[in-house]
């Protein structure tokens, strides 16, 4: 068991774009930190903001919501609702006192394996600087 | 008895006697003069007890849902009640032919607790005169500034009159514009201080759900906050964060800024600071001028192809 702390990132990934992008990162043998726990969702619009809060509550140090680029949604408009929703939620989380680096929204297509690896690298580096998250987290 | 009050009584009496409405919702006597309570008049005798004075505080819209009577319901509506009724109509919880709106222009309601603190005694009556409030107690009448006597929500009110009504008790006033100075003030602090602020607020929460029960926009028949898979029981700081986040997000884009949640809160949590944050961002990001006034489509139930990405710095396009 390693004694060094590694951040935990919960990554909600749309199955049509980002999940395939993450697959591509793997099959392309791209190196990125094993800090992200991808959760496949049918669309980024499926991600209820309560999922994000629940992730922080249960010990996530960072949360990533990622889906198709606007205009590329498999369901035509799902991610356009996501865009409105998470524009508000991101600002609201910061308003409640969460550090901006802990929550990210990204558009990552199935062809962007590199981008997926890069986002995870960036986020991991940011979270390592911040340390473990205790805000809004359950106490055991 | 004021002229408006007598007009309200005779109008309600007429509506009830003619059978146009089965119930009339307004204010009636409470346990002390400064605390009138919502009043459901069902006959002309009940209508004769209706009150209309600056102590009439609660927003009445939500009571339309509690009323189980089959016939049409009359309701007294100031600006906030009017927006609440529009909210329930837009959410299809109430049908237009079941509600008869009696509009009245409101210049603010006097908070009995603030009035008690100011006057040092139980207030018996109040009168609004421009920027001053005249409070009468057993020891006489004194003048106080408006800001120290009115409910907080009334101080930032932009809607003195409902936008429409079936009958009017007086001349409606045009709506104004809401600003959000308190939100901007909190935003200027750093993340840790904001978190400390909300920790102080939410750690007082009793989870009595009064904010939800009082809200004219928060009326789902089945509420996720009652389901353990969404919110496990127990009052702890993390659960309270979850509760308040979920409540505020559920009314984002639908809140009518009546301030009833904050008013209902026994722990004095400044809930309007949460609702105002969403309203301010909806206005700034999506160009909805008056997010608290119900519109054809909810801001979060629609999108524009060129919406900004609000999670980026300043919400600008990448």
Question: Would you kindly provide a written description of the structure presented here, covering whatever features stand out?
Answer:
The complex is a heterodimer of chains A (140) and B (318). Chain A is of the alpha/beta class. In chain A, 39% of the residues lie in helices and 16% in strands. Chain A has a four-stranded parallel β-sheet, with helices on both faces. With 318 residues, chain B is an alpha/beta fold. Chain B has three domains: 3-108 and 155-168, no CATH class; 112-147, no CATH class; 181-300, no CATH class. Chain B contains twelve helices and eight strands. Chain B has a five-stranded mixed β-sheet with strand order 2-1-3-4-8. In chain B, strands 5-6-7 form a three-stranded antiparallel β-sheet, covered by helices on one side. The longest helix of chain B has 15 residues, at 3-17. In chain B, 40% of the residues are buried. The model of chain B has no long low-confidence stretch (mean pLDDT 92). Chains A and B meet through helix 2, helix 3 and strand 4 of A and helix 7, helix 8, helix 10 and helix 12 of B.
Q: Can you list the strand order of the major beta sheet of chain A? A: 2-1-3-4
Label the structural class of chain A: alpha/beta
Q: Span from first to last CA of chain A?
A: 22 Å
Oligomer: heterodimer
Task: Give a quick precis of the structure.
Chain A is α/β, with parallel strands linked by helices and 140 residues long. Chain A has helices spanning 18-27, 49-57, 78-95, 113-130, and strands at 9-14, 36-41, 62-67, 103-107.
């Amino acid at each position: 068991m390693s004694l060094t702390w590694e951040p935990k990132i919960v990554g909600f990934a749309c199955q049509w774009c980002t999940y395939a992008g993450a697959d591509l990162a793997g099959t392309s043998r791209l190196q990125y930190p094993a800090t992200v726990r991808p959760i496949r969702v049918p669309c980024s619009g499926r991600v209820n903001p309560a999922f994000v809060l629940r992730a922080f509550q249960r010990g996530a140090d960072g949360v990533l919501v990622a889906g198709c680029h606007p205009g590329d949604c498999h369901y035509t408009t799902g991610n356009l609702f996501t865009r409105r929703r998470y524009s508000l939620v991101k600002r609201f989380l910061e308003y409640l006192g969460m550090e901006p680096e802990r929550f990210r929204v990204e558009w990552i297509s199935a062809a962007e394996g590199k981008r997926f690896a890069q986002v995870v690298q960036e986020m991991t580096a940011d979270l390592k600087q911040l340390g473990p998250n205790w805000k809004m987290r359950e106490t055991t | 008895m004021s002229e408006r009050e007598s007009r309200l009584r005779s109008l309600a009496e007429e509506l009830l006697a003619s059978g146009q409405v089965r119930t009339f919702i307004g204010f009636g006597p409470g346990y002390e003069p400064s605390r009138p309570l919502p009043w459901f008049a069902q006959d002309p005798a009940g209508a004769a007890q209706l009150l209309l004075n600056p102590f009439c505080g609660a927003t009445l819209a939500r009571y339309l849902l509690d009323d189980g009577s089959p016939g049409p319901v009359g309701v007294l509506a100031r600006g906030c009640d009017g927006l609440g009724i529009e909210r329930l109509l837009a959410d299809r919880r109430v049908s237009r032919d079941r509600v008869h709106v009696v509009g009245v222009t409101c210049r603010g309601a006097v908070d009995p607790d603030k009035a008690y603190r100011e006057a040092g005694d139980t207030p018996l009556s109040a009168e609004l005169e421009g920027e001053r409030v005249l409070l009468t107690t057993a020891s006489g009448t004194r003048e106080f500034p408006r800001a120290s006597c009115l409910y907080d929500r009334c101080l930032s009110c932009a809607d003195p009159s409902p936008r429409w009504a079936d009958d009017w008790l007086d001349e409606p006033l045009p709506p104004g514009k809401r600003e959000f100075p308190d939100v901007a003030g909190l935003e200027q602090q750093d993340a840790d201080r904001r978190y400390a602020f909300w920790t102080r607020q939410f750690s007082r929460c009793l989870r009595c759900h009064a904010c939800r029960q009082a809200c004219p926009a928060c009326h789902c028949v089945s509420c996720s906050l009652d389901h353990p898979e969404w919110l496990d029981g127990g009052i702890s700081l993390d659960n309270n964060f979850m509760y308040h986040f979920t409540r505020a997000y559920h009314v984002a884009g639908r809140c009518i800024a009546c301030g009833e949640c904050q008013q209902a809160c026994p722990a004095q949590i400044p809930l309007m600071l949460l609702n105002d944050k969403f309203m301010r961002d909806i206005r700034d990001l999506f160009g909805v001028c008056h997010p608290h006034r119900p519109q054809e489509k909810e801001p979060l139930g629609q999108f524009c192809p060129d919406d900004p990405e609000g999670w980026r710095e300043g919400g600008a396009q990448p």
